[in-house]
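Minutes, methods subgroup
Present: GH (chair), OT, SY

1. OT presented the first of two proteins processed in the latest run. Sequence and structure tokens recorded below as shown on screen.
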Amino acid sequence: MEDSQQPPPPPPTTTATNGNDNRPIAIVHYIPIPNLSFFQFISETVNLIHASDSLFSIHRPSARAVVVLGSTPLKSEHLDQYPSVEIVIGTSAGLDHIDLAECRRRNIKVTGAGDAFSEDVADYAVALLLDVLRRVSAADRCVRTGLWPVNREYPLGNKLGGKRVGIVGLGSIGMMVSKRLEPFGCTIAYTSRNKKSHIPYLFYPTVLELATATDALILCCALTDKTHHVVNREVLTAMGKKGILVNIGRGAIVDEKELVKLLVEGELGGAGLDVYEKEPEVPKELFTMDNVVLSPHKAVFTTESFEALRDVVIGNLKAFFSNKPLLSEVNPNN
């Protein structure tokens, strides 16, 4: 899976399950204790039990499913608490918070959000790129702060049409981003784990080569050991003073300190960022830059995307408890 977005973390309150009906039991894994109202649809299929529930100690040893909300870490020590678990139901596209290697070792299946968020994240990626190039957010600030009558000569932006755009991670989201950029007349290139023989876009084997050959990079890949800081100083420098970086993957794909430094020094053209290395902390140096657009990890936040998530999560739970093929099983080797 080459995308990475997630549902919003619910505010902390207590759950409201009783575990006394005929629905299968599933542990809901979220720290701190969640308000399940946003994910109440899951209770249509299973009875959710949280650590705060009085019945947790009874059902914890025998529960076969664990539902992980948002990007809550699920590590070996957590799995030790659920000795009978056979499946982890993820509610996010990115799964770097789940120890996939440990799940593989224990023969535990893992599912994610599948393509539930792909369209909306792709829209958002293009929106960030357009915003940086045309300075939409900066222009909005100019008007709202009363600077328009004072600064009549607003800085010129740049058009999207004809730009060479490199996509890092040509999975579901990456492909949808490329399809949205084609009508603008953009030239699309990509790098991915493997070259895709059926894709007409130019393939580059490394991010550095892709950065050298394009005007903008859009990061759509998952965060793994191999992609951590894959966009480093060398890559950012190769993009040049007019290069634009858009990140809707994970913050740690980019060496954030180097990104900030190059933006401050004027060695990079701009950035559209929905994710950061130490969320919700954002480097303050970026706050005053008109060539940088900042977003609070919200690319998936649409009514439609969460309706699609509902279908995927319920579909996976029903499939598991009826021994049918899962809708969005993840390869634990990825």
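2. SY then presented the second protein from the same run.
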Amino acid sequence: MGKTDAAAEAERPSEKRGGHVIATQPLLAAGALAAVCWAAADMLLVGFVPAPEKYPLLSQTLAADLDGKADLALLMLDGSPERLFWGVLPATFSAALYLAAAFGVYRLMRRSGAAACCFALLFAAYALSPLGHAGFYYLGMSAQTLPSAAPADHALLLAQFAAFYRMLAVHWWASVGCAAAAFLILLVQALRGQTRLPCAAAWFNPLPVGLAVGLSCSLFPHSPVAAAVGGATFNLAQLVFFAAALWFGRRKGLEAV
């Protein structure tokens, strides 16, 4: 005869450490706070509408040399160095909150191999994300030097831009890929009823929310507001998820479980 859900939950080894209950809600609140910090950082760092007509050197003359990255090179040209700088700090200095939130997400799931895999992927995603995010700063600053540089220096600066992009791409895609895989596992488990939240919480998973936000913003390609929101799509989607998890968790009495 199988154990009841209550008995199974009582045997979760992560319930206590040193005799003290580890509360799930504060971990989820840490995720919500981190999402706010990262969304604000995204808006400052990449929340621009590119203006290719203002920079013919990059949009036309050097477009072929940028190897398909002209749009990315144009993206942050209108951002002041101070804005790009502050577009990094709120994210990197709140990364620890996301790491704590990964454990909170694990606590929401029934103990299983899927839960462990979700936690490992999400923790890795959050650990990799600061360098992936900060990489945009270096890419933007590198691109800003090109319009004022002498033509003889373009080859060296283009090589630098390509090197910065390579470092950014490795960490950014690894981080986003791990996070997407983790939230896909969470989505499937939520639909299967294998989380401590109702199945309706699946609608607030970052994957469907992020898709909705991204598609909505794409309808307004020349809107600064849409550019800012679109640039922060995934972190805004995580904010919705953590806020919803807090709300559902409070209704189910998960404040200290």
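Chair's summary of item 2: Residues 24-251 form one domain.
Next meeting: continue with the remaining queue.
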